Amino acid sequence: MTTERGNRKTRVGIVISDKMDKTVVVKVDHLVKHPVYKKYIKRRITFKAHDEQNACGVGDKVLIVETRPLSRDKRWRVREILEKNVIV
């Protein structure tokens, strides 16, 4: 019998650092509506993601997926590289 795991969270972001071995830092932007002024504010958060082949470079647009804890800070994996070097 096959059992399905729960839906894992996915995010699309831009790699801002690849200096660690098999780890990249990914910046994810999202818009939040201000409760009083009704203006949209850009918020960003950074995630450390596991990159097994060290294939990602700074500026790449990547899809990351939630996973089990891999280290103290890493809870995400790079699923695929959507675009290479978005920032020139």
Question: What is the chains' assembly state?
Answer: single chain
Under CATH at level 1, the class stands as Mainly Beta
First CA to last CA: what distance? 49 Å
Strand content: over 45%
Largest sheet: 5 strands, mixed, barrel
- What's the helix-strand series? EEEEE
Shape: globular
Total strand segments? 5
Quote the average pLDDT: 93
Side by side, the strands of the main sheet go 1-2-3-5-4
Please give the share of residues in helix: under 10%
CATH-level-4 superfamily name: Nucleic acid-binding proteins
Number of domains: 1
Computed CA radius of gyration, to the nearest angstrom:
15 Å
- Count of DSSP H/I helices: 0
The CATH architecture classification is Beta Barrel
Structural class: mainly beta
pLDDT < 50 stretches: none
Overview of the structural elements:
This protein is an all-beta fold. The protein has one domain: Nucleic acid-binding proteins (OB fold (Dihydrolipoamide Acetyltransferase, E2P)). The chain is 0% helix and 50% strand. The chain contains no helices and five strands. It has a five-stranded mixed β-barrel. Strand 1 and strand 2 form a beta hairpin.
